[in-house]
Amino acid sequence: MKMDKIIEKYDVIIIGGGAAGLTAAIYCGRAMLNTLVLEQSLVGGLAAGTGEIENYPGFPDGTDGKSLMELFYKQARRFNVKFKFTDVKRADLINDVKIIETFRNIYEAEAVIIASGARPRITGAPNEEKLIGKGISFCAVCDAASNTGKTVVVIGSGDSAIEEGVFLTKFADKVIVSVLHDAGKMDCNEITKATALSNPKMEFIWNTVVDHFDGDDQIEAVVLKNLKTGELIPVKCHRCFEFIGHIPNSDIFKGMLDMTDEGYILTNEEMETNIEGVFAAGDVRKKYLRQVATCVGDGAIAGVKAEKFIQIKRSCK
Question: Which domain holds residue 234?
Fold first, then answer.
């Protein structure tokens, strides 16, 4: 027997409980809007899985992502923001009343803020998921300083991979880069390539992909496979950085919102999408830098704009 879904009404629904979503929630809650955050897994998003964060203002000794996101969450709760830990199955954003549907509920709101983030593209190699956050990282800017004097591996050869690899040499003793292509060929721009190749701290292992990762509670080695010979090459390291792209969590909004070919939502500087009353913030939108600090900025703008949108809408009735 099919059960009818429970309908709940809110002023604002925020999809995603990472840094951008939590910041938007703080602003909306403080504006005394009835606010709901829908998060499919853990509060904090990708930031919560970051071991050390050295570049977020206000923490001169650094902090870890989990602790920082717990502070964001506690502050949002202080302003009576409600949280539901569930996956969004369907969204209807076109009409004045926005509808967000989960497995058990239908939520209605006047405004929606999409802060669903993006997930790093991973290699899919054995033992990888177990070691994410335990030596496998996706943010050199966040974790570079903790690798002072150590050996790190970088996977990828695009602009982000090689630029981050060069940045890591300011701290690490050795940066070993696994490159899919033949010797001398990379996917980055020529200036970045030349800078990397001339850096004495950088070493390149060509024609390789990750075969598997070694380590139990902490990464011990990345085992690479030579695509031409099949040889397995164990590379001992203290940390592995993967820079093979991101996948925005925007699939359910395709056909409704304007996006890039990669699926990043297009907004203006006020976080407005092409649909009135729908805003996007954080890593899910097209932007230059994906960091906790920029997500906080996005979330603040989206929260204020959602409040102003609702205020104007109600004053016109």
Answer: 122-242
Residue 1 in domain? no
pLDDT grade, residue 2 (50/70/90)?
low
- pLDDT tens per residue, range 70-102: 999 999 999 999 999 999 999 999 999 999 999
Q: How many domains does the chain have?
A: 2
Are residues 189 and 205 both part of a single domain? yes
Closest C-alpha among 139, 97, 93 to residue 11: 97
The alpha carbon dihedral of 232, 238, 243, 247 has a sign of positive
Q: Which helix (H) or strand (E) holds 75?
A: helix 65-78
User: Which of 192, 207, 242 is where one domain is finished?
Assistant: 242
Separation of first and last alpha carbons in the chain: 41
150 plus 41 within the same structural domain: no
**How many CA atoms lie less than 13 Å away from 195 in the CB half-sphere?**
15
Tell me which of 194, 216, 242 is where a domain ends.
242
* Whether 135 and 230 share a structural domain: yes
CA distance 110 to 35: 11
pTM: 0.79
- Rounded CA-CA distance 113/46 in Å is 18
**177-205: average pLDDT:** 95
Q: Contact, 57 vs 35, CB < 8 A?
A: no
User: Cα separations (Å) of 94 from 9, 99, 111?
Assistant: 17, 9, 11
In the predicted structure, residue 238 carries a pLDDT above the cut 70: yes
pLDDT by residue (tens digit) across 278-313? 999 999 999 988 889 999 999 999 999 999 999 998
